[in-house]
Backbone:
């Protein structure tokens, strides 16, 4: 039974180990170095612009572009050369270099967005983190330019399944002037957001729910970020609709759009 459990764990962890073995050290990565039975040699260091770290006894060593195992071997050889006999060197990554992607064009807060250290980010979330699409923005013709090469166009309505990678660039174009109108339409975001109240809708009369929440300042510290209630005005009155924000972000559910008169209520988290 123990063998089965061990085999299962190895299968689950294999992709992670493969990534760790293949990862090449970058500028601003922070590494930890230890040498067996040499407690005073333990240190942490950040890789500088030149690709170097400063280590005890041997001083400056260039390790940028190396894997952890390659860096360990290089440091081991330097210690063996003048200082230690058969040193057992162990190097680990304390924190990875900050990674970014860019959202530009007709969004409220264009610029760089920090890529999460764990997990991924999709197009819908990236646009929302940039403050959402402006009134003059064309949410049906968003360009994603990949750092690795190539570009593609997407609609915000189907953007939950479009995963972004560090270095990618998102561009939200402006609508043609003929599509812009001066009619002001509003909906309301209330509850656990930073700036509850009315938000203006773009000229086409609708806005995606992630952008609507972003326009209200985003979630408060105690907000339930997984789900909300949407009250939609019907001919017979308001209809309450449960919306899974988590499923929209992950792409499991289609994007929900907000129209004039809609009311979004963000509740407090239970935990």
Residues:
């Amino acid at each position: 039974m123990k063998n089965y459990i061990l085999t299962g764990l190895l299968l689950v962890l294999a992709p992670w180990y493969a990534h760790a073995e293949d990862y090449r050290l970058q500028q601003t990565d922070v590494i930890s170095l230890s040498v067996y039975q040499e407690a005073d040699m333990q240190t942490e260091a950040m890789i500088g612009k030149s690709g170097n770290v400063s280590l005890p006894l041997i001083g400056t060593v260039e390790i940028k572009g190396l894997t952890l195992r390659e860096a360990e071997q290089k440091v081991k050889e330097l210690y063996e050369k003048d200082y230690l006999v058969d040193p057992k060197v162990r190097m680990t990554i304390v924190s990875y270099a900050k990674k970014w992607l860019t959202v530009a064009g007709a969004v409220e807060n264009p610029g760089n967005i920090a890529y999460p250290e764990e997990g991924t980010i999709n197009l819908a979330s990236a646009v929302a983190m940039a403050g959402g699409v402006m009134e003059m923005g064309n949410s049906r013709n968003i360009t994603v330019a990949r750092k690795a090469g190539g570009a593609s166009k997407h609609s915000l309505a189907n953007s939950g399944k479009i995963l972004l990678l560090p270095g990618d660039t998102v561009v939200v174009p402006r609508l043609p002037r003929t599509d812009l109108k001066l009619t002001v339409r509003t909906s309301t975001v209330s509850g656990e957001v930073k700036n509850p109240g009315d938000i203006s809708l773009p000229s086409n009369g609708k806005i995606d729910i992630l952008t609507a929440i972003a326009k209200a300042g985003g979630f408060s510290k105690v907000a339930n970020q997984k789900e909300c209630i949407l009250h939609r005005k019907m001919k017979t009155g308001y209809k309450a609709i449960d919306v899974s924000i988590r499923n929209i972000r992950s792409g499991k559910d289609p994007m929900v759009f907000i129209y004039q008169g809609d009311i979004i209520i963000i509740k407090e988290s239970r935990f």
Observations:
- The two ends are 37 Å apart (CA to CA).
- Residues 2-22 form the longest helix (21 residues).
- Confidence is low (pLDDT under 50) at residues 1-19.
- The first strand starts at residue 30 and ends at 35.
